Amino acid sequence: MLTKEQNELLTRVEGDAPMGKMLRQYWLPALRSEALVADGDPVRVRLFGQNFVAFRGTDGKAAIFDEGCPHRGASLLLARNEDCALTCIFHGWKFGNNGKTVDVPTEPKDRREAFAKKVPLKSYPVKEAGTMVWVWLGEGEVPEFPMLKFNTMPDTHVRAWVAYVQVNWLQGLEATVDTAHVGVLHKSHIGLLSEGDEFEDIAPRYDIDPQPYGLRAAALRRMKDGSEYVRVTEYVAPWYSFIPQPGTHAVCTISTPIDDYNVGQWYISFDSEQPLSEDKIQFFESMIGPDPNNFYNPKGTFENRWLQDRELMKQGHFSGVQGIPIEDFIVEESMGPIADRTKEFLGSTDIAIARMRRMFLKSLEDFKNGLPPFALNIKIDYSKIKTNTFYVPKNTDWRDKFKEIAMK
């Protein structure tokens, strides 16, 4: 349970909100690479309550600027995209995808070049990796780009989708860190934890190992033969959750703050050893909407109970909602745009969420005192972070098996 002040501190990200200022110091995905076409339409990107414009120049290079033209504020979504630059249709001011003002035709010829150098065009560092366009919106020295496993792979091994959900960013993140709900909310889709012959108890026992980058959370469920089924989730600050999958296939979710009341929920599917199979892609796409740039569409609302199918529930489906991600989204939205964490009654399976919140509160205090945000002041090999599901015999430490798998 949090106080009202703590809940506000952790959830508000717009303007000068402390959490927003701190989170801007981290790299984050802005949009899918496929959403930008060379010399194609500029695309609006909204993050931390601010609007930006993204585009791809003739040379294939992606760029992100403030959306408003620095001259009079006209939207650069209307701009011409050509010659590796955006040209504002209002007065023809031209801005290159290298972040420099190229031309200001409304100025006298003898002073155009000098004037252009003074135009305060606000552009941002951009990287492309993992089939996504990433941006850094912070202040000061740009931190090292996080070379997470999927950011080191060829595009054939990775696929990213994004959905926009009407809840605060922390709500989206907490849903991905919470592994206890998997065997309940999603059981009609994956059949992980039935109360049949396999599991002694569907309630997991949590074991948490703090890591320099966040938390390693093991959910252990005892089998009837005394062995344990283990799901290890890796939470990587500030917004990554690596979801346990068997074998070389893996899934990472990212929760990006759009504004105080909206979150971008990213799902990245990747395979470390081979091109991502069509089966894996089709499995995920069978559960979502048709637009990979916003797959939570069409979506329900409170008024129609988020399109929940009560007849399907009578037939045995647990949630009455098709699609694992969509199940998460409707539960998140049902809490309201910003959940009131002062009224929570947490249980033992909420330990990872509680620790993550404390980590954020400590990082915010450090940041206020001039220290770097959590994990930005140390060298981390993000490419080594992996997770898995496995079984261990009775009275065996799951960490030993996890280390064995991680070494492969």
Give a written overview of the molecule.
InterPro entries: Cholesterol_7-desaturase (IPR050584), LigXa_C (IPR045623), Rieske_2Fe-2S (IPR017941), Rieske_2Fe-2S_sf (IPR036922). Keywords: 2Fe-2S, Iron, Iron-sulfur, Metal-binding, Oxidoreductase. Residues 27-135 form the Rieske domain. This is Rieske 2Fe-2S domain-containing protein. It holds the Pfam family LigXa_C. The protein folds into two domains: 28-135, Rieske Iron-sulfur Protein (3-layer Sandwich), CATH 2.102.10.10; 149-406, Alpha-Beta Complex (Naphthalene 1,2-dioxygenase Alpha Subunit, Chain A, domain 1). The chain has eleven helices and 18 strands. The model is unreliable at 192-197 (pLDDT under 50). The protein has 408 residues and is α+β, with helices and mostly antiparallel strands. The chain is globular. Strands 11, 12, 13, 14, 15, 16, 17 and 18 form an eight-stranded antiparallel sheet that branches.
Features:
single chain, 408 residues, alpha+beta, Naphthalene 1,2-dioxygenase Alpha Subunit, Chain A, domain 1, eight-stranded antiparallel beta sheet, four-stranded antiparallel beta sheet, 11 helices, globular, Cholesterol_7-desaturase, metal-binding, Rieske_2Fe-2S_sf, iron
Brief summary of the model shown:
With 408 residues, the chain is of the alpha+beta class.
